[in-house]
Amino acid sequence: MKIGILALQGAFIEHAKTIRQLGHEAVEVRLPADLADLAGLIIPGGESTTIGKLATEFNLIEPLRDFARAKPTWGTCAGMIFLAKDIGIDRQPILGVMDITVNRNAFGRQVDSFEIDLPVSVLGDDPFHAIFIRAPLVTGVGPGVQVLARLPDERIVAVEQDHLLATAFHPELTLDDRLHRHFLSLVEKRL
Ligand code: GLN
Could you read off the pLDDT of 130-182 as tens digits, one per residue? Predict the structure, then answer.
């Protein structure tokens, strides 16, 4: 399958590498034309304000929004912020396609980065080693949203809504490719 990775800024190379290792084609997306023929799209972690600014400059906001409304799209960290309907900030450009409320930089300065083994409902019994880097939190979910993972204190860090997937942490920075395979199964279902 042909999977696009939004390649404006952030950890896109790592996602592309994992997709290729799993035997699929990874296409770096920088222009609206790059979205043609893709079966799915990954929006990486990085800095959501920068991704939003560059996407606006490259006229990508509307094409990305149309894509994410129709086809499987996975946002990790900054990508999760970019997919959300509500981030509590009006002036930052986002796609606003997923029915979640997200709080940016929710962990503050003291513990802004950490790693933890988390159970993820769609991955079976083995916990997933989740790396959080100045991560967002999901503070509200709409009725169609399924919660996939929570921190031990119950705060939500992974969600799915139909063909949309969002994780607050960075699966592309670990060797565990189960979340990539889960996303590819969402893509396959909608081919
Ligand atoms: N703090 C970043 C933001 O607000 C996200 C960090 C990340 O993607 N690792 O966009």
Answer: 999 999 999 999 999 999 999 999 999 999 999 999 999 999 999 999 999 99
Tokens of 89: 């900030």
Q: How far apart are CA 73 and CA 157, in angstroms?
A: 17
**Do 121 and 148 touch, CB atoms closer than 8 A?**
yes
Burial tier of 59 (Cβ tally within 10 Å: 0-12, 13-18, 19+): exposed
Known catalytic residue: 172? yes
Tokens coding 103: 């709080």
- Does the pTM exceed 0.90? yes
CA of residue 37 to ligand 1 center, whole Å: 28
Q: Please state the atom number of ligand 1 nearest to the C-alpha of residue 49.
A: 10
Domains and CATH numbers, the chain: 2-190 (3.40.50.880)
